[in-house]
Design brief:
This protein is α+β, with helices and mostly antiparallel strands. The protein is built from 8 helices and 7 strands; from the N terminus they run ααββαααββαααβββ.
Length: about 200
């Protein structure tokens, strides 16, 4: 499946996720290829370039009427925030897209390194993930953040509402001198801490 996401869509996505406090995975924007089934061949091409090409070939296109609604955050970013930012950097769209590319590369590398430690830190059960606090606390910060995200994703299958604030707060809690306790994530996910271990689980009613 090929979609027509452009560089403009990428810039808007990065800003939207930044405002929502997304972690680096979110800030890496829209991937050019998704699961080997979706490709975005125009992701590095601006909307202006696409429109110029269509006009030069006298090709019509369909504009989604919802693009004009100020109810949607993306539309407000497109119509107001980006034009404001262009006063400081006329190439802000390209800058944001390039930043997303760099973050995606870094994310892939840190992710590959974190996966090497996942089996050392965690034991996966059917509904819970048990973590070794001693091993976890000895890892680099970037690896700890990524491992937390991986653990939460295995329990909830969705990181959409998990922000960078949630991850850093959870990490600080696990590394603190507090011997036990718990911290809640968006949804029903809970991270509970013991003396030398912690568990990522789902709140049960």
């Amino acid at each position: 499946i090929a979609t027509v996401h452009t560089q403009d869509d990428q810039a808007e996505t990065v800003l939207m996720r930044l405002l929502r406090g997304s972690v680096s995975k979110g800030l890496s924007g829209i991937p050019p290829v998704l699961n080997d089934t979706v490709i975005r061949p125009l992701i590095e091409i601006s909307r202006e370039e696409v429109e110029k090409y269509l006009k030069s070939r006298k090709l019509a296109w369909v504009e989604d009427s919802s693009n004009q609604s100020e109810e949607h955050l993306r539309n407000r970013i497109r119509s107001s925030l980006i034009p404001d930012l262009e006063q400081y950097n006329p190439r802000i769209r390209e800058t944001l897209a390039k930043t997303a590319d760099i973050l995606r590369i870094e994310e892939q590398y840190v992710g590959s390194q974190a996966l090497k430690h996942f089996g050392r830190v965690f034991e996966s059960g059917k509904i819970d993930i048990l973590g070794n606090l001693n091993i976890y606390s000895g890892l680099e910060t970037a690896l700890r953040y990524f491992l937390l995200r991986q653990g939460i994703e295995k329990i909830s299958s969705d990181l959409k509402n998990v922000s960078s604030t949630h991850i850093t707060a959870s990490d600080e809690f696990l590394l603190s001198d507090t011997p036990s306790g718990e911290i809640e994530m968006p949804g029903e996910t809970v991270i509970a801490k013991g003396y030398d271990c912690f568990i990522i689980t789902t709140r049960r009613s």
